[in-house]
């Protein structure tokens, strides 16, 4: 599953302390060669439907069963208790707007018992937990946007139709939406969980671009700073930003010091994000449903610092070191 998006959470500048750990929940595969995707993080993320072959090109929906695959032993089945479907489209896109109108008309006529909700209605919705399914009309960025909409609560499965340029997370073609939606609403598609990351930092990245490392260190060491909680579907990156020097990052796992990385930055990625920024930085590609975290350096000074694959339930702590001498 290829994500060519920018980092989910880019903490620019000199962030003193990042506390990152896996928070699971996931994507979703369907019972047909179609596949539902469900995201997950400590807060709960989204789900999304995708084709069995994770191809960058949308493929026609077929009804061939894929249940013989061992991976489907982990698939769960969604329940549509509340009969509510959220429709999210790519903004400022006429093709997506036309598809949204057609989809609403179809559901109103053929499935009158289902309440359709558009993104603008979320502000007045009492609880987002009552949504059973999200239908995405757009590109990979639309799926990332949906993940953000449900950053503080469980996210229902995401059924994605590719109206974007890449569409690795939305492998269904718009012309197949009739067959695909009927399969979903008839309960013939399962949900495969993925994971997201929870990140806690003493600074949220704002005001950290001045270049005054002494002032930054004092702010970050201050006990008055409250933790900022972020979630990421792809990855969290700690980067030197516009500084001409590399950054020295102390890495600890479960409060035990591991090593110091001197590099342009460091990426902590999910398996879903292993094909995005981490892959471009030389990290390994990990199967999307695995429970793991990737620790990938960005242009490290030492050739001995290689990407790491860690268990998903570990706590990883990153701290910028201000004691490193970059003057040579």
Automatic annotation (TrEMBL):
One of its GO terms (biological process) is NAD+ metabolic process. Residues 27-67 are annotated as: Disordered. GO terms for molecular function: ATP binding; NAD+ kinase activity. InterPro entries: ATP-NAD_kinase_N, ATP-NAD_kinase_PpnK-typ_C, NAD/diacylglycerol_kinase_sf, NADK. Residues 28-59 have a biased composition (Polar residues). The keyword Kinase applies. The keyword Transferase applies. Keywords: ATP-binding, Kinase, NAD, NADP, Nucleotide-binding, Transferase. It comes from the Eukaryota. Belongs to the NAD kinase family. This is NADH kinase pos5, variant 2. The gene is POS5_3.
